[in-house]
Amino acid sequence: MNNYRKNGFKLAGTTWALSSASLLSCLLVTGCGSQDTPQPPAPPAVTVAKPELREVSVYKNYPATLQGVSEIDIRARVSGYLQQTNFNEGTLVEKGDLLFTIEQDPYQLAVESAQADLERAEAGRELAQTRKRRLEQALQSHSVSEVEVDIAAAELAQATASVSQAQANLKNAHLDLSYTTVHAPINGRISLAEVSDENLVGYSEPTVITTIVDDSVIEAYFEVPEREVIKFLRHRSEKKEGESFRELEIKLKLADRSLYPLTGNIDFIDNKVDAMTRTIRVRAVFDNSKFALASGMYASVQVPVAPDQNNPTETRAILVPAAVIMRDIGGSYVWVVDEANIVHRRSVDVGDTIVKPAEGGQHAVRQTIILNGLKVEDTIIISGLQRARDGAPVTPKTK
Predict the structure, then answer these.
(1) Are 186 and 106 in the same domain?
(2) Any idea what the CATH number is for the domain that residue 321 is in?
(3) Is 50 helix (H, G, I), strand (E, B) or coil?
(4) For residue 64, which phi and psi values (nearest 5 degrees)?
(5) CA distance 180 to 167
(6) Using CA atoms, how far apart are residues 75 and 300, in angstroms rounded to an integer?
(7) pTM higher than 0.90 for the full model?
(8) Which domain holds residue 270?
(9) Phi and psi of 304, rounded to 5°?
(10) In terms of domains, do 138 and 250 share one?
């Protein structure tokens, strides 16, 4: 019994000693596999995409003032009291419509007086003709001298001139009489009557009594900066464009930001640059047969231009989301990911920023045209830009 306890005590003590030694050895050496070896963190995740190559429409915007194709001040061309107004203000009138009547009595009397003067002059001419004819007959029998015949010829010439003068005076009297009825010279929309009935008009100078605007066609005048005109002039001198600017479809954005449904065309470019503003005046015309525009309105003319104005025949362009364009003192750049998932800074030349319309359930997107620095095969970071570092690895993901 004692031997068994002694032996058992020894065995237990031996077992405890071995277990303690083994645990200490594991803790000091390897931890016995109770913990994994620490792994480095994965590269940051970013969203990538390819640049888009497609047809784009780029427009240059210029502020413009609209006016009707014809705007006429109607004036009283003779003096007198305004007797009658024959139109409704603000309505459309047609060419030849009677607008005003100015008192006619003085001018009718002037016509009658001029008619009487003409008849008197014609009678004097007939008398001079008869006298000259008789003197010529008498000259054949030497009853009168040649001088008397010459005097008769001169008197006939004077009488003929008097007839011509009387005829001119009669025409002038008829013309003044015609001015007492004021007719619409064009089709258009008439304004207010500036003078009411029974007022004296045309006394010291031709009085403006109303205006008519033909706004069936609207002209938009705008100014183009000299630096943009230089490119046009260069192409014109090289005969690359010629009159092609007349074929451009011009858009018109109104003050409420709506687009006029019809496009127009440029029909005039001025022959010189304004030395004060360094701009050149240009005109575009728009059909307004439905009278949706009015003279005097403000609008923005949108002129289509090539995405890259150094290559005016190319209509396609490389585009990226506008938000991926980064800028610093070195210029504009984007983050490009190579085949090894390493980020690189890529400097780019940018053009205009346009809006890609919403389609396929996606929202409208602002995109920037890349003129130089990117290819369609490149992969760019479009999300997670703050995690990109030049030369650092990333974990690219696509949408």
Answers:
(1) yes
(2) 2.40.420.20
(3) coil
(4) -140, 155
(5) 21
(6) 34
(7) no
(8) 60-67+215-305
(9) -70, 135
(10) no
